[in-house]
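Section 3.1: Structural characterization of target chains.
Under the original work plan, the team committed to producing a structural model for every single-chain target entering the pipeline before any wet-lab resources were allocated. The record below documents one such target. The sequence was received from the expression subgroup and is listed exactly as submitted; it comprises 359 residues.
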Amino acid sequence: MKSKLSLFFIILLLFITPVKNNNIKNLFILYMAGDNDLYIHALGDILEIQNSYFENTKVLILLDGEDETKIIEINNNTKIELKKFDNLNTGDPKVLTDFILFSISRYKPENIILGLWGHGDGRNFKGSDGKGVCFDESSVDYLTIKEIKESLKTVYNKKNKKIDIVFFDACFMQTVEVSYELRDYVDYIIASQAYVPLDGFPYDDILKNISSENLSILEIGKEIAKSYFNSYNNGSQGIDKVSISILNTSKSSDILSITKDYITKNKKLDNIRNLREDCLIPLNQKYVDYYSLFSKLLNEENLKLLDEIVSEYVVLNLNSFNNNLNGFSIYFPPYYFPINLTFFTESGWENFLWSEFTY
């Protein structure tokens, strides 16, 4: 009888003991490539997160430095070191994949927000692999966009879940090539067409502003972008000129279609190099503002179509430069150099530039 009563109380205890609930609204994953001259700024951003107050969000950070790599979790004022490694290579896509999978396995998020933090540019340390981000000086390596795509594809295949938002706390990353490459595994991309100041994104403002449980994922994206822009518009981070936009990746295929249609009908233009000079991205001679260029090339009918596409593709665009930055760039250097990205080849833009600079 005593054993039966004991069993009864054990079963009862199982039912009334609260089970840890890992369901959360937002999983905020930050992949910080600080094995370079940005490390001190990485520590500053982490301190910013630690000193902020936020709700409905869990923050997991992979912090890479010159000597070691850590995975840490921050919950308001609490910082916990979850894992420690000698020194990982943030230019290795497997490191990114493993970190995302670890984060998703720890919680059951409604929304996944992935931040790629570090240097970003079109430098080509890997031959013709093209644009990259998250430079790792110890390994002389970085993530190409194709590597990021393969990483996110692996995550999708294992977890059957896309990343809701990818934001780049890195320079010059908001291009049509990037959004087209990642379109199958990311819903929205937040990035700058121009440079990003050393203070980067204002993580305290962002986490506070996305805390509301009632925000949709698009509203969360807008809060991230607006927090960044406002922080440099006489805000918490000064008065630097900045640009930031949100792209709906599903509409990048429409940009490819209108680009391809134009190139098919116009093999070569005598004045395109002069037009290029009027559309350059500030401080980067490799990219031009897509809309500024193509609005000068298209006829009235196709320009109307482009306007309709861009209105759905560019969800939000904020810019304090004098230049006409309309939300996304396209690769157009002053010389021919291939980048191994799908948009570049499938749109015909590669052949177009080849004919422009070699004949």
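The chain has a mean pLDDT of 90.
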